[in-house]
Amino acid sequence: MTQCATQNIPYSWRAMQYMVADVQYGGRITDDLDRELFASYAGLWVTDAVFQPNYSFNTLIHDFQYQVPDCTEHARFVDYINSMPDKDSPIVFGLNNNADLTFRLKDSQVMLSTMIDTQPKDAGGGSGKSREEEVKDKLEADLIKGLPADFLEVEVDERLKVLKGPKNLNESGKGVPLNVFLSQEIQRFQMILGTVRKTMGDMVLAIEGQIIMTPDIVESIYSVYDFRVPRKWVYDPTGAEISWLTDSLAGWLKGLLDRHHQLSNWIFKERPPSYWLTGFFNPQGFLTAMKQEVTRSKKNGNDPWSLDEVIYKTEVMKEVIAGDDGRIENRNIAAKDEGVQIHGLYLEGAAWSREKKLEEAAGKDLFQNFPIIHVSATSMNAAAVPQGMARRGQDAALDKQQYSCPVYKYPRRNDKYLIFRVNLKADSAQGQLNLSKGVSAVVNWKLKGVALLCCKD
Description:
Layout: H1 2-6, H2 13-24, H3 32-45, H4 74-82, H5 98-118, H6 131-143, H7 153-162, H8 177-208, H9 215-225, H10 231-234, H11 249-268, E1 275-276, H12 283-297, E2 310-320, E3 340-343, E4 346-348, E5 351-352, E6 358-359, E7 367-369, E8 371-379, E9 389-390, E10 402-408, E11 418-425, H13 442-447, E12 451-453
Parallel strand pairs: 1-3, 10-12
Antiparallel strand pairs: 2-8, 2-9, 3-8, 4-7, 4-12, 5-6, 10-11
């Protein structure tokens, strides 16, 4: 920079952005989407615009204008820093005002959870019964009876042998990738269901004094009493997740029933026209199996595809299926000849307009039910890149107005729960930050953290 100033050479802002966002600071970021977000901030704020008089990082903030101080004295810089508000508005960073509401709701949930954890465990309920007696009554009256039927291995194997694949793939049984995926999902679900059934039975027997009250059983009793999910149902002894994460016991058991419903209908009836993506243990495996089917259907053509050259192709449909269970009975939904349709996702950080594009979220609604998405595959070697293609790690190549929206298993933004990415048409509005010339409007949605979620908690 010194050489540029002394020799009157223009600054290479792209080089400085790269040094800041990808090397010195960005090089320490391990999450791909965090790195993209950091690069977006560098593209906005590491520019020559910051040297303009009275430059403001966000012109929409009225309580306090965040500017580059027009001074050179250290004391005046310190005075300006001390004048900043104690709490920054989320608008400063390009977020929607609902981001602050989301933060405070999560903060309250953590506080309530901590209060439950610190309550005494030996007190009885208001009915005069002990904690154990109340849990036993709840188990025998509702919970055990409400569990779904077991999947019998013999019946599942028989159905898998005759279960057909897609129309354009003349195979059946375990020669069909999605049938193999279905078999694996049923096996894993049956393992969880067996664990739940055994834990409930052991709790009843231990309370009656017929078996020893082990620490695991005690923990399960406390959890059921507090309407929370026993740890044994969610994590294995190593701490790895074996089922789905839900705060409440009622929500977790509802998920158990809904997942059983989808798997049972699929194995004992036929392929559903649309799949509830939330209901799978391994949604990435589901989409990979879909890509395998599409690739196999192209093997006899003039230009056979290779699996490692196939990428996702997505299209947002019109139909919206609301509800956490994603059931599609009595709905006139046509299945696609190629690829799969998924439903039950929630949009966070933005709204979806009738013109099928992202727009600014209004009101206090944190989530919006999203329409069905048709997910298929296409070859990277195709002559033309279809609109709606999703590529990992970058916006879809040919359309500056396509936001590469991440799809997360839970509302937790990290690579562990990232499933894949869907291209969504972005509104041309420039958002709340000063988007400089040449910066795509897609940056607006990156800064807002817009994402599709399989569940809201």
